[in-house]
Each structure stands twice: as C-alpha cells, then as structure tokens.
Amino acid sequence: MAVRGFEMPRLARISGALGPGPSDRRMYVVDALGKDPYRDPETADYIWYPPYPLTKPHHGPLQPDANGQFDHLEPGTREFSAAAAFAAVHCAFAVWEHYIGRRLRLVTRRGQRRLEIVPRVTKIGDGAWSGEGFVEFGFANNNQRQPYCENIDAVAHECGHIILKRLIGPAPKGRYQFERKSHDEAGADIVSLVCILHFDSVVNAVLAQTRGKLYSINILSQIGEYRRGHSGRRTTRKLFHDKTMAAVARARGHDKYVFAQPFLGAAFDILVEMYEDHLVQRGLIDTDLARRSTHASAKAHPRIRREFAARFKLNPDGFADSLRDATRDFAYMLALAWRKSRSTGVTFSRVASNIAAADARLNRGRYGAIIRRAFGKRRIAVRVGRS
Ligand SMILES: [Zn+2]
Q1: How far does the centroid of ligand 1 lie from the alpha carbon of residue 221, in Å?
Q2: What pTM did the predictor assign?
Q3: How many whole angstroms from 184 Cα to the centroid of ligand 1?
Q4: 3-state SS class at 69
C-alpha cells in the first residue's frame, strides 16, 4: 500500500452489526465479476446505474465467522478485498460524520437504499470512481495484486467526493463548474488525509520519518500515490510545494488536478502550522523555533530539522498528540467551511474565506494568521468578515 503505516493490514473495529457482504444498514459490498464500470472512465458520463443486479455474475456474499467478524481473511484474496473495502469506506464516513456532527445521506437515488461498494472492477483499469449510490475500484498500474479498494487513501478520496457533494451540493454548470471540480479533487485529498491521520500507525510513521519536522510535502507524500495515478500523470512533488495560482493558470479549464494544487498545498501548509502551534502550546518547541520554522528559507531547513529532531527525541508522544490535536481542529474547521460553501458557492477564494470564518467561530481566530499566510502565499485571497 502507498500509505506509510499501512504496509501491514490494519484491523478495523466497526460499531453496529454486520451482515453478509459485508453489509450494514447504510452500505454493502457486492463483489461483481466481469462488471462494466458505471461511468465511462474517459468522459465520466454514466453508462448505467447501481444497484448491481444479483442475477449478474458475482462472488459471495462474504459470510462472517461464528463471532460475526470478518478478520479471519487472508490478504491477497477476493474475500480480503471485499472486507477491506467495506472497512475503509465505513471508516472514511465515520471519521467525517464525527466532524460534521450528523449522519450523511449516502444515497439519494430513488429505489436504492444503501451505498454500493464494488471492490474489484477489472474493466476500470488504473483508477477508482464514485458517483450516485456507489464507489468502485480498479487496480494500481492495472495490476490485480494492487487493488485500490485495499488502499485507504484511494477509498477515502472517493468517499470524499460523496461527502463534499452532500455538504456543498452538486457542482454547478457553467462558469464555476471547473473551479468547483478542481476544489473537490483537493477536498477529497483533504478528506483522505484527515482519515489516515486517525490511525496511530500513520501518525507514528510520519513523525518517525520526519523526526517531528513536517512539511506539506511529506504530508502529501503520504497520500500522493493514488492522486497521481488518478490524474494519469506524474506531477512533480517539488513543484507542488510552492505552486501559486499564477503557476497553474494554464491548467484552467482542462486539468483539474493541476489547477487544484495551490489550494491543496495551502491546506496542507495550514495543517503543518497548526501542528507547530500545538507543539508550542504544549511546550514541546519554543515560539522562536516555530517562528523560524514558518519563515525559514530552504537553506535554513537542515538546521531547523536538527532542532526539531532533538526536541522530538525527548517526547515523541507529545508530538503525536499535537498532530492529532491539529488534525482535529483542522477537520472541524473544514467541515464547517464546506457547509458554509453551500450558500456562498465555491471558488478557491470563497472556500478559503469560509475556512477563516470557521476558525473565527470555532477557535476565536487562533489560526487566522496561519490561514491568511498559507493562502496568500498561493495567491488565493482570503476575505474576512465577508460571507
Ligand atoms: Zn477524485
């Protein structure tokens, strides 16, 4: 798997009773065989709609063991894929519904009650899709030993599209459509990032690897693999690091993944600085180091990294708690900002302003300077006090 900390399968605990599939009251797995994708992988147009008819070829449904569990399965099997996909989808919605403060409607189409999860769709190739009433997954590099449905990053990204659509509403047609779609690619990555940071194994791996000094670039590297495959091209991480709107202007209208990069980069910068703010608050680094870390030139980075490493060694658990606290504040802020975006509409600037407004409401503006600086650097305007 692409995400560090997920090289080994993780056990997922799910509240509520599980049925065959696996399934529960809100979602179910159907392990379709030889299935045509619901949407055209080239144009994204719908070819047909869920639910997948059980008169068509499929495997399963998977039965739980005598204790009602699905943790007895062998990695590398279809059965494992089905259970892993269910667990990951469940996890993505559970994490975000916590921050949103309510259950989302997973399905809006008439005649369908539950979200359909199709774990292994060979005909999709290298990609994954979400849409009305379903998520379905292909394979990294078209390799059937690398199913995206077992990659929590890929799964959470697809669930992210559904979450954003429920919070903000459908994408408008016309002038604002492209920016909304670009925003949603960044937003789905943000959804995924918050989701994977809920796993201690990921938090510990990120911090051990960076020795406490996070940059948005190594945050991104945790979730980059899938996004890059998704866009059908390899984007250079180094460039991503400080992409401004001017640098991506030529992508407007045709490459939403590239156009999304300044917004995504700013969001990751914000999370990193929020984390450093928590480190200061816990007395794990001093304000002087945090300030130098924020404004450091590339030349000063090795020195700052060394200083962080020395502090990290003294209290790795405190660093992990700071990252968890920052993730929580970040997710609450985003959830509120996206809800507000339903009435303001989506441009990068409006969502950035909604994030600042959410911070003012939730944290009395604790992160206001961080938010304005991060978006300002990417040339995305934050208008405070304006809805
Ligand atoms: Zn996407």
Answers
A1: 17
A2: 0.93
A3: 7
A4: coil
